[in-house]
Amino acid sequence: MSHNREKEVSLLGNMNVEYKMNYDPTILEEFENRHPQRDYFVKFNCPEFTSLCPITGQPDFATIYISYIPDKKMVESKSLKLYLFSFRNHGDFHEDCMNKMVNDLVELMDPRYIEIWGKFTPRGGISIDPYVNYGKPGTKYENMAEHRLMNHDMYPEKIDHR
After folding, report:
1. Which of 19, 81, 86, 91 is positioned for an S-S bond with 52, CB 3.0–4.6 A?
2. Number of continuous H segments (helices) and E segments (strands) in the chain
3. pTM value?
4. Measured between alpha carbons, how far is 144 from 119 in angstroms, rounded to an integer?
């Protein structure tokens, strides 16, 4: 069965895209996973994430790692980029931003498994690195999520280069 990807997504290749300055999950677009018979990870490394501290209004910077095992749908990368950009003027705690991302991406694609790890630049001498994951309830991915949560930071990196 042949599908025309151009009919599935509207942002990729569109030169007149608006960069929204406030949190907007409606930007996200999905497309069909052409390999649903196979488990595989898709990973996005997003080193330029910015949001605002909800108390001080100061900018917070992070690298966001998003990894997921798709089911029937996948997230389109340009829409994901625009979605992440929409946090630019959004005031929320780091933990809330990561949980919102998981919630929005689960709602969009209903993945088998997803994890998001935000590694924020230190402010005031401390960094906050929230890790959030989700496995489809009632499946082996629910067990996988529990296992990965309990073991996600067994080998933490040296923090000397941020």
Report:
1. 91
2. 4, 6
3. 0.86
4. 22
- Which residue matches tokens 């088998």? 112
State pLDDT tens for residues 102-131: 999 999 999 999 999 999 999 888 889 999
Residues marked as catalytic = 53, 60
Q: Assign 160 a pLDDT band (cuts: 50, 70, 90).
A: low
Strands 30-32 and 42-52: what pairing? unpaired
